[in-house]
Amino acid sequence: MELTKSTTAFLACHWENDIAGTDGAFAPFFRAEIERRGVIGVARRLLDGARAAGGQVVYTRVAFQEGHRDLVANIPLLGIVAQQGSLLDGTPATAILDELTPGPGDLVVTNPKVGAFAASDLDERLRAAGIDTVVLFGVATNITIENTGRAAGDLGYRVVVVEDACAAASPEAHEATIASFGLLGEVATADEVLAAL
Description:
- The protein has a single domain, classed as Rossmann fold (3-Layer(aba) Sandwich), CATH 3.40.50.
- Helix content is 39%, strand content 16%.
- It is built from 8 helices and 6 strands, in the order βαααβαβαβαβαβα.
- The protein has helices spanning 17-20, 27-37, 39-52, 76-84, 122-128, 141-154, 171-181, 190-196; strands at 8-13, 56-62, 107-111, 133-138, 158-162, 186-188.
- The chain has a 6-stranded parallel β-sheet, sandwiched between helices.
- Helix 6 (141-154) links the parallel strand 4 and strand 5 (158-162).
- Keywords: Hydrolase.
């Protein structure tokens, strides 16, 4: 694997307290697998390596305005958000986990959808920075990572999913996306990605 650091963005997807935190609204869905797989530590190592190499780090987070007035509950997952009243922008719920806090020069993109490219300026910001490759990692593998990866491929980006820096609600859900994604992009480990930088 080869990566050009000047044209590669590392997309840290949905590492928010409500999704990946120990007490977040979605902790019952995701936290056990996050801990079992040890993905926070792997993500931190990946972020540190990307920054040290001069790569662009982009955090994507899903968040909604007060009263969820920008939430369209057209899919069941967003219906759960509406019922719970979770993921409100400007609250600790949508802050990035303390262990993975954005650093100077990192971008933070907010969107009110499952995928990072939907209803956000992510594509415009990446193109303005000369990015042609996205390295994806985060929660959940079969939801945000898969959705964002498919959209990125359709938009013309080279897509790499970091398998050991992703988690889903179950091992089976994670593995199903990893098994199929090789036809849509590339799957690699954090060590392989860091070595390619």
